[in-house]
Predict the structure.
Amino acid sequence: MVTAARVVRTLAGAAAVVIGAASSAHAQSASTRDRASTDPRIVEAGGKLYRRNCAVCHGWRGEGTVANWNQPGPDGKMPPPPLNGTAHTWHHPRSGLMLVIRQGTVRIGGNMPAWKDRLNDAQISAIIDHLISLWPEDVYQAWLKRGGYN
């Protein structure tokens, strides 16, 4: 015979299991978070935007397109750096990366055009999320320690 007290105990036990599992999953996801965006669709959309707009200069997977990216080219300007964590991109906070993509580097002596009239902030942010997803874990952790989300 099922009593009301037994039903309440069973439901309370089930609720405790669900709450405990949810808390554990939240703690795990907070410690092993999906880098920049918790939504893989944003990272994927950022990858598509990156390949359409950025890959010609920075490489298909952010690997760069010139060997000596850290030395001035024949025009005296710095070539596009790799963005996959092997150059200096991770030295800059997210807000700085947003600014560089929006405004480009022409005004400071570079070749990168401003993208603010072609990409909105959500698209630029998705591109950055994609790039962050390419970085090795140690580079990502170093970026976080430098205040990467500032």
